[in-house]
Amino acid sequence: MPAAAAAASGTAVASYTDYIPDSVKSFVSDLYRSIRGGDVVGTDKLYEGDFRRLSARVYRDKPWPPAKAVASYCDDDHVFLLLYSELTSRHAHARLPGLTLTHGADSWDTYCSLFTVVLQNVLTMQLPNQWLWDMVDGFVSQFQRFCEYRTKLEDKTEEEISLLKRFDQAWSVYGVFNYLKALVENSMIREILEREEGLEQFTMMNGYEHKQGGSNVLKMLGYYSMIGLLRVHCLIGDYHTGLRCLLPIDIGQQGVYTTVTGSYISTIYYYGFANFMMRRYADVIHQFNKILLYILKYKQYDEKSPQYDFLLKKNEQMYALLAICLSLCPQNNLIAEDVSTELKGKYGTEMEKMLRGDGQAHYDELFSLACPKFIAAWPPVLKEPFTNYNQDVYRLQLKLFLDEVKQQLFLGDIRSFLKVFSVITIGRLAQHMRLDENALRAILLAYTRKTHAVDNYGKITSSADFDFYIDEETIHATESKSSKHHHDYFLTHISKLEEVMGELSEVQLAEPAISPGEEACMFPSYDGAHWHC
């Protein structure tokens, strides 16, 4: 940096320091001491409480002070200042409008420096899981927004085009993948989760390190980076690879990913969407049923949380996806009564039309609502004429989905007829459907193909609600008897009982006034023949 620029920068920092409130100075000092002292509970209170309150009260519409301005309150600690820069940069990108490309490039440099320190050094600090999840989530979110920005070229000024050329390596898809994969590999989290003893200890300690001087930072960043990789792969349309990145985490069980609300909801949403695009509808229905029940139960407790808007958005997206899944794969027995009631209230009319086969517009509308914001991850072509191509990947994914819907138009009719006729000849069924026999055979083969999929472990699974086979020229159909999820039934009613008991505990019952004479009658005596007061 030239001397004049350095002097100007120093003057700016000095002037900024004069305006830092005492509450902010105390926060920085307390956070630094808490992290250095290994006080995870104290750090969590400062991160979840003080930082959010100060952000809302002091820095609602402006950025936090730069790292240099607060360096004197943390002994100029390099690692702490990187954590502070990441934290305040994430706040700015999430809350402040009008940030420039330079801000995005600076944020990329901050993440690169922080992750490099984590990957190349042995740390002795522990951070709250919520902070570490927010770190990975913010990293992917800023990558997503930067990709969206650089693919809208039509209205860019010459200065903006020049900055895009200058920062051509900032937020590259290769760089993002490399950091996320390096965090997974260097943390050895996959090896930890593969060993039964390691998984048990990791889950019991909630990812924290029980040894004195140990650190959970690299381990938990690696753990959450697997979820981050799933999300990035979904954003670019590579669903198979995304699901493979998540294989070490058992989605069917409660785990560390469920202890942070944002992590839990993001994991299930992107896991469900990836399976949805791979036609594994039954698995999507089962997983969404669980998470939507969770949201129904705990949504009221998260109203003041900064994650509340995110929770409501994902809630609506998952109901929209669930409506599509149940229209393509009618498995209403897989969802709980409460979820079914909510779903019918939101999309009952649309589902009826889609089940009848005349809801093409609703498929388009619900997919547009439910899908993530896809990104064009390739570098922009910075040559005239400049065009916008930020919607290209979305249009491609929508086309693939609608093509799949068109291929399943006749499957609803097949399902309806074979539920009525358990035994019917191919010729008679063809007459009912007004098709020739060869076309019917092709549709029967298509039904078998569309209702079966290969899961992440290479096993063929069926999402059909009935089975059939053809013996010579006769079709034999039997309705599939899916196993009842007794645990879901009991958990739902236990939850309802807890709600009722919670309401009863808040009811104040007035104690009846008892006169002295009546009080004596509360303890009667028995003389062998009669009771007396």
Automatic annotation (TrEMBL):
<dbReference type="GO" id="GO:0016282">
    <property type="term" value="C:eukaryotic 43S preinitiation complex"/>
</dbReference>
<comment type="subunit">
    <text>Component of the eukaryotic translation initiation factor 3 (eIF-3) complex.</text>
</comment>
<comment type="function">
    <text>Component of the eukaryotic translation initiation factor 3 (eIF-3) complex, which is involved in protein synthesis of a specialized repertoire of mRNAs and, together with other initiation factors, stimulates binding of mRNA and methionyl-tRNAi to the 40S ribosome. The eIF-3 complex specifically targets and initiates translation of a subset of mRNAs involved in cell proliferation.</text>
</comment>
<dbReference type="InterPro" id="IPR000717">
    <property type="entry name" value="PCI_dom"/>
</dbReference>
<feature type="domain" description="PCI">
    <location>
        <begin position="287"/>
        <end position="484"/>
    </location>
</feature>
<protein>
    <recommendedName>
        <fullName>Eukaryotic translation initiation factor 3 subunit L</fullName>
    </recommendedName>
</protein>
<dbReference type="Pfam" id="PF10255">
    <property type="entry name" value="Paf67"/>
</dbReference>
<dbReference type="GO" id="GO:0005852">
    <property type="term" value="C:eukaryotic translation initiation factor 3 complex"/>
</dbReference>
<keyword id="KW-0963">Cytoplasm</keyword>
<dbReference type="GO" id="GO:0006413">
    <property type="term" value="P:translational initiation"/>
</dbReference>
<comment type="similarity">
    <text>Belongs to the eIF-3 subunit L family.</text>
</comment>
<dbReference type="GO" id="GO:0001732">
    <property type="term" value="P:formation of cytoplasmic translation initiation complex"/>
</dbReference>
<dbReference type="GO" id="GO:0003743">
    <property type="term" value="F:translation initiation factor activity"/>
</dbReference>
<keyword id="KW-0396">Initiation factor</keyword>
<dbReference type="GO" id="GO:0033290">
    <property type="term" value="C:eukaryotic 48S preinitiation complex"/>
</dbReference>
<dbReference type="InterPro" id="IPR019382">
    <property type="entry name" value="eIF3l"/>
</dbReference>
<keyword id="KW-0648">Protein biosynthesis</keyword>
